[in-house]
Amino acid sequence: MADAAKAAQAAKEKLARTKVYMANMFKGGVIVAVENGEQAKIAEKLGARGVEVVAPVPKAPALEFNTTVTADPSIVREVLGAVVLPVVGRIRYGHVIEAQVMKACGVNAIDEHEGTTNASDEVVPKADDTLPYFAGIKRLQRLPVPLFADGGIVLPTDVAMVMDLKADGAIVSQVVFQVPDPARRVRSMVMAAAHFRNPAILLQFVEDT
């Protein structure tokens, strides 16, 4: 029994290390929220570390964003087929079934997103899950996992600021695809993550948006 307990504990610790390793693939750059495969291709081409599939947002006002609705599985599969980047599925906080659906779609990680339509007061159980999860910082503060800033990140200065505040990366809002030149905006935000310590270089990308 003792050997079995040790083996189970070793397997649990290995799984935890594996999930942290997978999450570390996103560190140092941006994850771009996308609504379809074409947007995902733009993000991949311009150097994003990953994409997060989200539900469409209203077209007006331009900077309105919706963070609480999970994307349709058909869109998730479309994005998975469009890029080789890691793909993150967004679920509502505490929604166990949405987590199961995202896993069935084949995503590489899950963002358990806290918003106005939380499904439960309890977090989705993660200890035995094979995928890494992102969640609000108050849920992760005791865990040795990368921290990705989220919420209204629409400008290169937003990315630079959260990187300067020691975030491991930023999740860029999908509303960047509503600006006149989405590719230019995405590129500037990717570059802001890479050059946030150099104001002279950062200025070039701020002016380019």
Any key phrases for this structure?
about 15% strand, 7 strands, 8 helices, alpha/beta, 7-stranded parallel sheet, about 210 residues
Word description of this protein:
With 209 residues, the protein is an alpha/beta fold. The protein has 8 helices and 7 strands. The chain has helices at 2-24, 37-45, 73-82, 96-105, 137-140, 156-164, 182-195, 199-207, and strands spanning 30-34, 50-53, 87-92, 109-113, 133-134, 148-149, 169-172. It has a 7-stranded parallel β-sheet. Helix 2 (37-45) links the parallel strand 1 (30-34) and strand 2.
Summarize this structure briefly.
The chain is of the alpha/beta class. The protein has helices at residues 2-24, 37-45, 73-82, 96-105, 137-140, 156-164, 182-195, 199-207, and strands at 30-34, 50-53, 87-92, 109-113, 133-134, 148-149, 169-172. Strands 5-4-3-2-1-7-6 form a seven-stranded parallel sheet.
